[in-house]
Amino acid sequence: MPRPLMNNRSESATWTARTGATSPTRTKVLDGRRSARYLRALKALDGSGKLATADVDELVGAVHREFAEKFCTTPLGIVSRCYLGTPYEVHTLALDGSIISHYRAGEPLPHGMDRARSLAESERYLAIEVYPDRLMCVRPDGTTVLLESDR
């Protein structure tokens, strides 16, 4: 039986950058530049800390369209740096339930998204897409860096 590619503890996994297509036996991850529509949706997460239900639905819809149009797997969630100020550090968008949450320093993130936290805190990335076995770092210009676990 193959070993799992990753567990939920970030300190035990080593990440390596990859370019190019993923293995055909794995889920298809969108590895190209993200659209302007998608980048606008990600930036809207930090607007005020509170979005109306219609705004959340629109934002989640834009994220889902980005992946569906390319026949790719939708991430489990997205982690981004939070600009609401102290005490908040990062925020998440859980795509399974359209949940947007802002997290204080040291507060654990759900669903294995904690492994993306240190990357999300960096100004180098607009957001980190979290998949079961990898992370996709999205830069502000829409280019991406794929990180995979070596486990």
Task: Please summarize what this structure is.
This protein has helices at 36-44, 53-68, 117-120, and strands spanning 15-18, 77-81, 88-94, 99-104, 127-130, 134-138, 144-149.
Describe this structure in words.
This protein is of the alpha+beta class and 151 residues long. It is built from three helices and seven strands, in the order E-H-H-E-E-E-H-E-E-E. The protein has helices spanning 36-44, 53-68, 117-120, and strands spanning 15-18, 77-81, 88-94, 99-104, 127-130, 134-138, 144-149. The chain has a seven-stranded antiparallel sheet.
Q: What's the alpha carbon Rg, rounded to whole Å? A: 15 Å
Which shape, going by the Cα principal axes? globular
Residue runs with pLDDT of under 50 for 5 or more positions: 1-16, 18-25
Number of helices: 3
Number of strands: 7
Let me know the largest β-sheet.
Answer: 7 strands, antiparallel
The helix-and-strand class reads alpha+beta
Helix content: 10-25%
Order of strands across the biggest sheet? 1-7-6-5-2-3-4
N-to-C span: 14 Å
In round numbers, the mean pLDDT is 76
Strand content: 15-25%
**Order of SSEs:** EHHEEEHEEE
